[in-house]
Write a structure and sequence with these properties.
Blueprint lengths: L2 H18 L2 H4 L11 H20 L6 H7 L10 H7 L26 E4 L2 E4 L11 H8 L13 E5 L2 E4 L5 H15 L19 E5 L25 H14 L16 E7 L5 E4 L6 H5 L4 E7 L2 E6 L8 E5 L4 E4 L7 E7 L6 H7 L5 E7 L2
Antiparallel strand pairs: 1-2, 3-4, 4-11, 5-6, 6-13, 7-12, 8-11, 8-13, 9-10, 9-12
Length: 373
């Protein structure tokens, strides 16, 4: 982590620790500032003391092993501790699923919340999409106007051959149902976890799969996930939404050859926190038959909006950029099936207010991508 990253983290931790002494907050565990619990404040405060002491004793380039030894006995009192620290540290995602950027300051693995098996880490404490917070007060403090969901279908765009964007295709009811289904399945066996590689690098998102398991290390090679769980089936309602979106898209293109139909048997569900991102990569782990036929990927976006990049080459500087908002459906198949694509940034406080009120979805973006293996 560079000096700016250290200053940013220490400033954040100082703010959290100051809040823990505020009588209006500490008077009751049920009285929370945003979504920050008292136990989380305590964990972050303790972390700050240990980290400050370490920095005073060691030079900036001290090895990560020394830092890990310093924290070996540290036991955070809140399961959200690691996510809160991760969101404010200067870590980068792999630039693609197959190519990782070296981390200069490896993330500490908290023993009480994570297990490590066969090169993969997963939470013993389930990750929940739901995080109660004061929606209206958050909007006022952010100074941003919250987005309302429109009842009618938005504009549709043919971005290039085989690539279609359906704006506001998912209704509020659709989005609420999807959040509720993902929450119910995400906290159970085979639910959300943070995927990673054998060398310890982790993607900066939470993931689970429907239909068939996939992860960046083993791809589709293993029927069971590293924790022994199998992927739950894709809910029938989601399959119907995918097929209807594909059929609607055919009204924008010349023929089905440009954008083939498909029957989804895999759904990868990713949740990006507001600091999450994903480097340019190709979705090319499906069967040779599926890839050669150009069977499309169908992507649902829910929650905070995201800047989405795509190009024929892995070129971040020159890649095309579109804004994917809550309710948007993006489809790419045919000649566009092998495009490089990624998420540049998540825009905080951009989720529709009615969605937040009905689901209490935590800050970030929920993304479901369907494909046929």
């Amino acid at each position: 982590m560079d000096d700016d990253g250290r200053i940013h983290l220490q400033s954040f931790l100082a703010t959290i620790q100051d809040l823990s002494h505020d009588p209006s907050i500490s008077s009751s565990k049920s009285d929370m500032h945003e979504c920050t619990s008292l136990s989380l404040m305590k964990s972050l405060g303790s972390y700050r003391e240990i980290k400050t002491s370490f920095d005073l004793k060691h030079p900036p380039n001290q090895t990560s092993n020394e830092w890990n030894k310093e924290l070996a006995a540290f036991q955070p009192s809140d399961p959200l501790f690691q996510d809160s620290v991760d969101d404010h540290e200067d870590y980068l995602l792999p630039t693609s699923f197959g190519r990782k950027q070296k981390l200069t300051y490896p993330r500490k693995k908290v023993k009480t919340n994570h297990l490590f098996s066969a090169g993969h880490s997963f939470q013993t404490t389930p990750f929940s999409l739901i995080l109660p917070r004061s929606i209206e007060s958050k909007c006022k403090r952010s100074g941003k106007k919250q987005v309302e969901i429109k009842n009618s279908l938005g504009s549709s765009y043919l971005l290039r051959s085989g690539m279609v964007l359906l704006k506001n295709y998912l209704t509020l009811s659709n989005q609420v149902d999807i959040v509720n289904k993902c929450e119910k399945l995400g906290v159970g066996q085979g639910g959300f976890y943070q995927p990673g590689y054998q060398d310890g690098a982790k993607l900066r998102l939470q993931m689970m799969c429907f239909g068939r398991n996939w992860d960046p290390q083993t791809k589709y090679d293993e029927d069971c996930r590293h924790d022994g769980s199998k992927a739950p089936p894709i809910p029938d309602e989601l399959i119907l939404l995918v097929k209807n979106a594909l059929q609607y898209s055919h009204s924008l293109i010349n023929s089905e050859d440009e954008l083939p139909m498909m029957s989804p048997d895999v759904c990868i569900v990713n949740f990006y926190a507001t600091s999450g991102r994903l480097g340019l990569h190709q979705d090319r782990d499906e069967s040779s038959d599926s890839l050669s036929r150009g069977l499309p990927v169908v992507s649902f976006s829910i929650g905070d909006s995201a800047e989405f990049l795509y190009d024929d080459k892995r070129d971040v500087e020159n890649a095309a950029k579109i804004l994917l908002e809550s309710g948007d459906v993006l489809i790419f198949g045919g000649k566009s099936r092998h495009i490089f694509h990624g998420v540049k940034t998540i825009n905080p406080n951009s989720a529709p207010l009615p969605l937040l009120k009905q689901t209490m979805l935590r800050a970030g973006r929920l993304n479901l991508t369907f494909r046929q293996f």
